[in-house]
Amino acid sequence: MSTDAPESSPSPVLHLRGPILLGAEQEITGAWVVGGRIRHERPELPAGTEIRELDGFVVPGLADLHCHLGIGDDGAGTTLATARDQALTDRDTGVLLVRDAGSIIDTSSLQHHSDLPRLIRCGRHLARTRRYLRGYAHELEPEELPAAVTAEARRSDGWVKLVGDWIDRDAGYLTPCWDGEDFAAAALAAHEAGARITTHTFDEETLPLALDAGFDCLEHATGLTDETIARTAEAAVPVVTTLVNVGEFESYAAQGETKFPAYATHMRRLREARYDRTGNARDAGVELLVGTDAGGVLGHGIIHDELDELARAGLSATEILQSAAWGPRAFLGVPGLEDGAPADLLLVSEDPRQDHRALRERSHIVLDGVVVLGR
Ligand SMILES: [Zn+2]
Predict the structure, then answer these.
(1) Is 13-59+336-374 assigned to CATH 2.30.40.10?
(2) How far is the CA of 350 from the centre of ligand 1 (A)?
(3) Residue 31 alpha carbon to ligand 1 centre in Å
(4) How many angstroms is it from 285 CA to the middle of ligand 1?
(5) What is the DSSP letter of 123?
């Protein structure tokens, strides 16, 4: 346990007066937090135990399935101190679970701080030589890929991240960085090491390759078509949306305009289709999970902007909660609000199933059973 966790000796028992939103269609009237755990039944307590009463709708801590801890603005200042500050910024917006979708530095020491969000690391990005942001990834050629996947699978928390496509500066166009055999070999190496593998993908042509290979998750997935939406739904592979980032495609297009006009046109087309495509994926039954892509280009602390983007794509408030709270926990194997689960939760005064913006106004944040933010 960390030495800089909030002092709490011992933490008072919390009585959450609810309702407790266990899932999209499941709620109970109240719950308790004792010894860092959620209890659905009132526990036996020694006489004189301090009980703190908290009112409000209780939801699991939000999850960010795609951000980068430790990567400072424009890739600069990549340090553990930066990572810790970013994690605290995210925590204070209600994000209590992070899957880091690629980190330049080893952030595993952050997992020992009980005052920080729970962190599931992907290791370092794996990218084709000169086909990603400079300095971020292990840059490789196809013959090196399987061994690199195995190595990242061992040093991460069971996830590997492959950069599937990027601008090919010689072609002047967005293209897959690997062929079907490379994707398949990468997925096989990850699965043999007991890990799951995900891919950064913008381009239409990358998605069939990743789906054929049996990838476990898709990041951004701006190139989804009717055909690949149907395949993604059929394979039950989630898509991590990152719509705030996709909104930034206009600036990538503008930067590349003169040298790479076809690339610029493509990026603008992907950006313009973002809400329709997201809505179509939802309609087809694709599981959508929230990711901010914060760190590097976008600042941390933007989860609520991403939720607003999902609303613009037509998701209901309950669907947004599914994508940001209940769904990601089930997908990552992290408990939510079930009896005995670690108490990582938010209290909000208005019903977030009616309007997701209620999540912006949190009265309390409870992490590991301790009130880390709130009156
Ligand atoms: Zn990213």
Answers:
(1) yes
(2) 32
(3) 36
(4) 24
(5) -
